[in-house]
Each structure stands twice: as C-alpha cells, then as structure tokens.
Amino acid sequence: MAHGVTDSSPMSIHQAVHGYADGHRQLALTAPLKPKDQKTLLALSDISGTGVRFEEDGYITGYPLTESGYYAVGRTWPATEFHRPGCVWTHTLLIEFSDLAVLDSFEWVLDVFRRPEDLGNAYLYSEPLEIQIESNATPQSVELGWCASVLSTLYGEPNKCTIAPRIGGGVDSTVLAIWSQQWPRLRRNFRFCTLSANDRSINGAEFDLQLISVSDRGARSRFSDVIVAGDFHLTGGEWLKYALDDLQSPDVDSLRTFLRKVGAELTDGRQAFIPLTQFFRALISDQSAVLSIQEAIEVLNKNGSIAQSKTLRALVVEKSISVIDQLNEELFSFVWGDLMLAPYELIKRFAGKIGAAAWCRDPSLVLDVIKSRDFNDDVNDILLSGLSVEQVISGLKQYPDYLKEILERRSEIVRSPDYWMSSSSIKESMNEVLRLGLQGEALIAMIKSGRDDLPLLAKSVFGANLILDALCKISLRCGHGARHGFDEWVQAAASDLKSVYEFLLSKQGISRELLFALARVIPPVSPQSYYENDPWLTAWRCSSGIVSEDDTIEFMAHMLARAFSSRPRFASELSRESFSIVYAAIVKNRISEQAWRILDACLTQSIIWWLKGRAEKIEHGVVDMFVERGLPPIDFLSLTRDALLFSRLVKYASQRKLGRIYLRRIMHFFKNDKPDFPVAFSRIVEEAIERD
Questions:
Q1: Which one-letter DSSP state was computed for residue 326?
Q2: pTM of the model
Q3: Closest CA to 112 of 137, 81, 134, 97
Q4: Distance, CA of 16 to CA of 35 (rounded, Å)
C-alpha cells in the first residue's frame, strides 16, 4: 500500500483536457496553475512531433509543473475524427508533489485516463477526480534486455537525455515502473515521454527519458546531445541486477524502501542512483560484516554525490557497531567519527564494546575528548557510556583532575550507591553534584548507600525539599523496609518544618509511606503556618502507594489530632477526612497506644477529660469542636454515614444550649439547601430539636 494511502481514503486528483478547437487548446482544467506552468502543460499536451505515428492507445508524458507544485502525467491519443493531421486529445492527471511522495506505484494512472469523445463532453473533466488508489507496486512483466539497456544509460549517463526504442505492448507500464522505482525527490524532477518524434525539452528543462518509434528511421537525427540506450556500456553492473529484480518484483530486497529512506536528503538526481544501489548491495550482501562495511565505505568515498549523506553514514555505523572490535584502523576511524549518527538504543546496546574498542586503541581518545571538547557532548557521552562504573571510578582515582568533565558526561555515576559508599571526599562530591544539577539522582543513591553520616550533611548542601523528593521516589519504587537509613533521612528533612509544609502542598502523588513517616516525627500540634490549604490534608488527597491499615489509622489519628488545634476551615476538612476511620478503629480496638496518646493529648485540653470511654471522648471532642467553632453544617453531616453514630453525635450536641443552636443551623441547612444526605439524618436532628 502507499505510504500514507489506505483503501478507506480516496485521493483527490486534479485533471486537465486538451484537444483541437481551432488549434490545440485547453478544454478543461481543475487546478489553479501559474502562467508558466499553463504554457508548459499546453505545449507538452500537444503532439510529440510533426508526423509522428502512434497507436490508438497513444503514449504517456510525465513532467513537473514546479511553480504550481504538481506533477503532470498525461496520455495523448490521436484525434482522427477531426480529419486534420496532428490533432490529438490529451487527458492529464495533476498529482500534487506531496501526494507524489506517498505513492508506491503509478500503474493505476493507466486505468484513470479517459479519451474525450468530442468537444462537447469537456465538461466531464471540470471537477477533480476522487480516486480510490490501490498503489501497491505489483510484479511486472518486463523485457529485461530493454530495461537493462535503459537503466544502464539512464543512470550511467545522468547528465544526458536517454532515448530508447519504443518496443511492443506494455512499454508505457514499464516506463511507469521505472519512474515508480525512484525516490520521491527524483520522481518529482523526472521527465519522460513514451513516444517522441522530436526532443520535447522546453525552456531549458531537459527530458530524462524519451522513446522513439523503431519505424521512424530519422528520429535519432532530430535529437542532439542525447545518448541512445545500448550505446553506453557500464562495467561493474552488480547494481543492475538489484535494480532489475526490484522492477520485476518491487521491493523484493527492500531496495525501494531503502531509496525512499535515503533519497530525501540527496539533490544529485539520477547521478545518485547507481552508487546508492551499490551501497545497498554492499550492506545486504552475504559476505562477512567487516567486508560489507569496507565495501560500503569505499562506495561512499568514491562518490561525492552521496559521500556526505548522514543517512548513509549512519547505516554504516549501525552495521559496524556490533563488530567494532573487529574493525581495522581505517574503518574504526570512519565509524568513530560518525558514531553520534547511530540510534541511541543501538549505541546503548553495544556501549561496552564501543568503549572497550576505543580505550584499547588509544586511551588518549577518551581523555583528549574530555579535555579539549573537540567533539560535541553527544559523542562524548556515547564514548564514555561504554565504560563500567568501576572503570570510571578507577579512572577518577588515576586522573582526579577530570572529575568535573567525567561527571558532566557520565551523570549516572552519581546514581550508583557504590560511588557514595566508597567516596572519601563526600563534601567535595556533593558540591560538584550541586554545580552540575545532579542532586536529584545523587540523593537517591546516597540514601540507598545506607551511610549514616550523609543525611545532615546532605541537608546542609541540598536542602530538605530535594531530600523529601528523593525519599518519595525511593518509597514509591521500593517495598517497605527495603532501605536501610530511610528514617534517618526523614528525621533530617523534618527538622526544616517550613520546607516540609511546602513539599506537602506542592508534591503531586506523594508516597503515603513517606507521608506517614513524616507524621510520626512531626507533632500534629506543630506551629501553624498560615497557608491557604492544610499541608497534611493536601498531601493525603494527592498521595499514592500501598500501606497497612494500622499505618493508615495512625495517620488519621494524626490528622484528627491536628483538627483540634487547627483553624476552623482546616479543622472542618481534617475531621471530615479522618473521624470515621479513627472512630471505627477505636470501636474495634484497632488503634495503637501511640496513636491514642496523640489524640488524648488534644482531648484532655477540653472539658471532656472526665470521660473514660475512648469512643465517647472522641464523639464529645468532635461535637464540641464543631459546635464551639461554628464549623459548616455540611461538614458535620459528612462525618459519618452511620445513622446510629450520627444520632449519638446529635444527642450529645442537644444537651447544651450552644449545641442546640448549632442543630438548628443544621436543620435550616436541610430545609434551604436540600443536601444529598440520608433522610434519617434530617429526622434525627429534627427530633432532637423538638425534645428541647
């Protein structure tokens, strides 16, 4: 199928018709053409030479209309009904350059051409065609001797027009196949005519291929500065076999795909066809990889038209990487110079072999690149990527002056816990990491190293926020308890409470394990910072990760304890988030003594210190908080979905004057806002008020 063309997407093709009406004229045209292109179209749609004799099926002409961005392919028929010599009909398809590039084959045009019947039906050509194109390049039945002669001449003498005899049936299809074989840029500039009595070149635009009638003995004399197919003998024709095989069975060896891939950056037209095919043959040959590489490089070095093609040089590098340790000095030098052209994943795959090959040849290759910066950073990074961490560390010990340069190109070294475990210059290393902006990766490695002398020093160099970010990443990647020293790092970061709050407010997807660890070391009644949102509640709502139920209960106890000492809006949201979980844990005796001590320390500050039951204390404490602070009724209603528990909360509230006033607020809220809460809640509040 065409590159980008499918069975379900018809292509719009403009068209034109020319014929005799008091002279050769344009009868229909659907595309807006520049004046120069209209003149070219008119001229090349006329008969291809005085006295030319041709069959009823006519002949094909193809040429670009450069200023308008179209390629014209037209079929010309004899218009014998006019009884006037030289009258013709020509139906021309105007293919946009952008469409020309996505089609694999042009055999379909032969089925689209329609011969006009008379001048009266020109209106049938007044709209663009919507064509369902089946552009698969299908196997061709070609006359191999004729094709070999034409291809050899066409591409062997690229600066001259090739003329060839018009052989029997199917020649139009064969020429279209030759055109289809070309890459898009060459197609766009290719000019051909399958029957010419005179040279059809106009306005300095020479035709590339013209066929002449075998019966017209004087035809050759009417062409100047051309070469006849068969007169040119090209040696070393192994390339020709691949080209002919591809004509008969399109893309059988992927030659056509290769030409499409590499042709886009070439501007030398026909001149590039033979060296490209030779290059292709070298790369896919059955000989050893090293010999293939050597032959491909020789093709590049001998042909200036393709020598600087990055795509071709990249293909050589790609083929060479896996055997780079087997290359001689000349081939290695070629590959080394263009190493950055290879795909990153391929380089990564063979990085060890590349680095070893360079180092074995001359260690100064690596050191000079680092020192002089003659190569760009991509090449430097690739060069060093072949060395193991151990090799780099060893190199640093041998050449400590290169620490900065190596870290700039091998930043993954700081991701190695082994680096930090063995380093004897911790402070200097941290300062260098900070200079290079590698602190995020380095901190993760430091934490994983397990060294207990790093946390406080790292906090002084990098700050608590970066440490928290690293802890979060580690926590999300690793299982609980998999990291020695995790708590020491949490403790170090928690000493900067302002940074902790800013982290909790800004971090998306914070690890719940880290969030809970911070809650264990930061008291819930820690000094309030006047942020717009509560840091703990914000972080909880954005948190992720798997934690135990007991850890969740302990954190919710921290949140509820914080509610008792927070501003009203925070208190309301914190209670709504945590109360039901904490209460259920108390009822089931699932709350830990540590969590209860945190809560109890807050509750004993109120008038409910005399209550003995933990559940009752929590009930009364939360009700007192909502009533005395006048927190929003909707949040009170959201504390639980359990009607029995809600009834207990309402009952306690109704025992105080201030509580009854608060219940009337709730009832007023029910009547005016009609919130989406169980109807039973409304009745419970109403009955409590009526008992008053």
A1: G
A2: 0.60
A3: 134
A4: 15
End-to-end CA gap in the chain: 84
Copy the structure tokens of residue 330: 């000349």
CA distance 455 to 457: 6
Tokens (6 digits) for 208: 């590339």
Which residues is 165 bridged to in the sheet? 212
Q: What is the pLDDT of residues 313-322, one digit of tens each?
A: 999 999 999 9
DSSP string, 521-553: HS-TTPPP---SS-HHHHHHHT-BS---HHHHH
Distance CA 91, CA 69 (A): 19
Q: Letter for the amino acid at 457?
A: L
Residue 322: how many CB atoms within 10 A of its CB?
13
Tokens encoding 160: 């001259």
For residue 458, pLDDT over 90 is answered with: yes
Report the C-alpha dihedral over residues 246, 251, 255, 256, rounded to 10 degrees: 100
CB 402 within 8 A of CB 430: no
The two structure tokens encoding residue 617: 């204390």
pLDDT, tens digit, for every residue of 105-157? 898 999 999 999 888 888 899 999 999 887 566 666 778 889 999 999 999 99
Alpha carbon of 220 to those of 191, 211, 580: distances in Å? 19, 10, 100
Determine contact, residues 310/265, Cβ cutoff 8 Å.
Answer: yes
Other beta carbons less than 10 A from residue 115's beta carbon? 17
